[in-house]
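Customer escalation, tier 2.

The customer says the design service returned an amino acid string that "doesn't look like it belongs to this structure." They asked us to rerun it and document both sides in this ticket. The original structure tokens are below, unchanged.
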């Protein structure tokens, strides 16, 4: 079984792991509402790629009151 010549120190181990950091994803702004949204996600107001995907609770309540 192969054996290592010497133990890798904590400092050298840490220097290697310093490259594993995560880069934060860039946020986009919703063109309809102007709020900051993570990429490839539906905004809290229900918009995605310029289309209305779902209705919010406030919109559902307004429709129920009108009907």
């Amino acid at each position: 079984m192969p054996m290592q010549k010497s133990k890798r120190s904590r400092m050298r181990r840490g220097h290697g792991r310093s490259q594993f950091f995560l880069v934060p994803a860039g946020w986009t702004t919703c063109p309809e509402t102007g709020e900051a949204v993570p990429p490839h996600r539906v905004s809290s107001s229900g918009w995605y790629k310029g289309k209305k995907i779902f209705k919010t609770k406030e919109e559902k309540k307004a429709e129920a009151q009108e009907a």
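Tier 2 assessment: The sequence is consistent with the input. The helical segments are 10-17, 57-66. The chain has a mean pLDDT of 88. Sent an explanation to the customer and offered a walkthrough call.
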